[in-house]
Amino acid sequence: MKSTILIIEDNEQNMYMLSYLLEKSNYIIIKAFNGVEGLRLAHENNPQIILIDIQLPDMDGYEICNKLRHNGLPKTTTIIAVTSYAMGGDKEKAIEAGADGYLEKPINPDTFVIQMESIIKGK
């Protein structure tokens, strides 16, 4: 059985696409549509992988990464920022906040799972 993935994403279309692609690859998906819910579900479920949008309604993904890394989440958890923020320095800012990797939106449905798994293997 594949790993459990928590997706923290407020856009329903993006959530649907990510969930669909990952479930098709046999991952177990937990969905959170905001940061507070994402933090709660992360601590209740201890997913192996967390995909975080940076631009969320209640707190940004950088803050969520930071809170996850400093509030008892297992060090083995892989956190990946999946975001349309693609300005210079955004990737570095995500890594600095605690993310292990960074994938830009729009995602490519043909390569997304491979890209994500590459980040996990490289951790």
UniProtKB/TrEMBL annotation:
Q: Which residues cross the membrane?
A: none
Query: Which keywords annotate this record?
Result: Phosphoprotein
| Keyword match Phosphoprotein | yes
Response regulatory domain residues are 4-120
Q: Which residues carry this modification: 4-aspartylphosphate?
A: D53
SUPFAM superfamilies of this UniProt entry?
A: CheY-like
Q: Which Pfam families match?
A: Response_reg
User: What highest taxon heads this organism's lineage?
Assistant: Bacteria
Q: What is the protein name given in its UniProt record?
A: Response regulator
The organism named in the record is: Mariniflexile jejuense
Organism taxonomic ancestry:
Bacteria, Pseudomonadati, Bacteroidota, Flavobacteriia, Flavobacteriales
